[in-house]
Amino acid sequence: MPLPRSVTSGPELHSPKEPTETQIPARGARRANSGDAPSTHREGSRPGLGTLRRAFSRASQRASGRAPEEDPGLLRRSSRFLLRTLQRAPGRGPAADQSRATMVASGATHSQEVPSRAMDGASQQSSTGVGPEELEGKSVADLITERHLLVAFEQLRHLEIRLVAEKASRTFQEDPTGFARRAMDVCLHYDGLAAEIGAIVRETLGPDGVDSAALVELARVVRAEEEAHPEPPADGDFLSTPRHWRQHWEDSVRESARERVQQAGVGEALGAAEGASGLAQILAQLGSLVRQDLQKVRLEVHPAYAAAGFPAWEAYLRAFHGAVAQRLQELAHDARGCEQLYLLLDWAANIYSSPDFLGAPDLALPSEPLPPLLAPDVWARLESDYTSFLETKIASCFDGILQLEQSRWAAAEVPDVLQGRYHSPLSMDVLMLVAEHVKAAGAISAELEATTLRICARALGLFLPRFEKAFLESEAVSEPHLGANINACEELRTNLLAKFPGSFEELEKPLVAAICVFQKRLLQDLQRDLQPLFRVLCTRDWLTQDVLPPLMDKVLTFARHLEHVAPPQAQETLQEVHRFVVREYLAQALKPQERFRGLDRVAGSQKMGLEAQAIGNTFQGLGSEATWLGQAIPCVADILGETYKDDIQRHLETLIASYPDIRRDHVLAILALRRLGRRRNQRLLQHAQALLRAVAKARGSGAAGGHVLFEEIEVPTSIDVLITCLWCSWA
């Protein structure tokens, strides 16, 4: 049936007590705290749908303080379902219509006879503190604008019931356009109520403070709507369908939280310098804003909602959690550099997730119900990017440490002596570098800590040979610097293994190797200074001069430096010096420039014995634990000066037993110091060879020690040695 061009107006959206015509929402509609009387209109004025929409848009924007904007979703939804209702209405069966009419008419009659609960006596007083007599005569639009939401809903509900009843009684059978206009009025006012709910939510966390009365009113009207429309009607009637205001409230809470979170760091530039000060400021503002808002929700907003049985805390908590997660992912997308990436990881893992984030234990963020702040793939990408930047940064830090050391070498700075040892900043710099990054990574996750340890170990392994090479090629090589570097490497070895067990074991060998390199260089310098002093030994001038003191003076000077070296390395070096002195002394004795005979030989033997005692006493006084070196020089001196030739065999036995590394060539060189005759040399050499075979067998089975002395002494092929060898072979 075609719609008529002009229709009669339906019931106006007033209190059901007033039989006047429909009233348009006034342009100057005010909030409840205004003292002016509600707006009125001339009779006969007939508002259009656009006028109603603009009125509710203005009312909503006044409440929210935002630029005018409409909710097209609500309007489209209202129009669409209303059209479906109109399309279904003419085709309904008489029985169904009669049943529906009887049921709704009964409700409408009851509504007209009994005032709404929200308007009944002092107990029906509005949450805003306005009595029912003050609300009489106000339009629904004014009630909504002044935020008497529950009263407005009760009137809308009454009009809805009456309109459904009239529809069921076929009152609009001849005038469907009239029904459409009145139904649209009701729907638009419902949408206006929903818009006002959103406006109240947006204002809740604003600078004007929390309006507890408005929140109570909001909660009650949502619950009232849920009770009025528990489920969609069987006939699909749009007017009685659930409005889902609770879901709308939750959506508004989420949108409010999102808007609040987006305010943090507005105008800050994130990708500026790698110092990450901009990001740090954004995160600080974000944390402060979320903390303040959630504290306000817990202490002010939640109690107001709780009075009406509304779970506001959980809704706000989840809304802010989601908004923070979204904001953090936006920041993560633009993060650059090691510092910025770490700031994000640290803020998410330690600051936001801290029990003290909200400033009170009872306000702690629950970790179990909430999803991860950052999605696993985002978190993994941040950690991966961070470790990539970290590798470059740690390598750069080691470059900086090397440059600092080179600057000290170039400035010829003498190492300080701290706690009795030569000190180099190297060990402290490396230990602080590793500890700082490992601690920072451990605060994020155990996996990141393990990754950082591997990065540090790998970087240190690459640094050590570079450091050795740079130092040994510099002009700063000296006993104090070598001692300081030995101490530094030993400190690194012990401290890294103790503080990070299981992570730096692979670096123990490189560190020990570096210590050995510095020890070797330390010994080389001493050996170069001592070598010329051994050349005067076992000469005729040596018999009449005291040439040992200058040599031992250099040893004593060197030993003073060892006092400032770590004890294990100092003892090793001292023993090596002790071994060097004895070895070089024997090497000079086994290749004499002149052969001693008669009294000179006896005098030389006595002098060797005295000097052997002086060498032993000196090194014993210095603390050398290489007591096994004490028999070498005296045994050779005894063989040289022995007047009872049969005792030479006993001296040989002592020498071979004490020094298993002695060879046949060394025995021949020792025998060549004496003119013993062919038979005696043959007998002594055969006996010595038997002893050497026994010693070699024992060394093969692992029964002998690992001391080395004669093995490093080269025996010259002199005429006397050749003669002694020939005699033994001819025999």
Automatic annotation (TrEMBL):
UniProt-listed InterPro entries: EXOC3/Sec6, EXOC3/Sec6_C
Matching Gene3D superfamilies: Exocyst complex component Sec6, C-terminal domain (1.10.357.70)
Region of interest (Disordered), ranges: 1-134
Recorded GO MF terms: SNARE binding
Gene Ontology CC entries for this record: exocyst
Gene Ontology biological process: exocyst localization; exocytosis
Cited Pfam families: Sec6
Amino acid composition bias (Low complexity), ranges on this chain: 53-66
Keyword tags: Phosphoprotein
Entry similarity comment: Belongs to the SEC6 family.
Name the record gives this protein: Exocyst complex component 3-like protein 4
Source organism of the structure: Vicugna pacos (Alpaca)
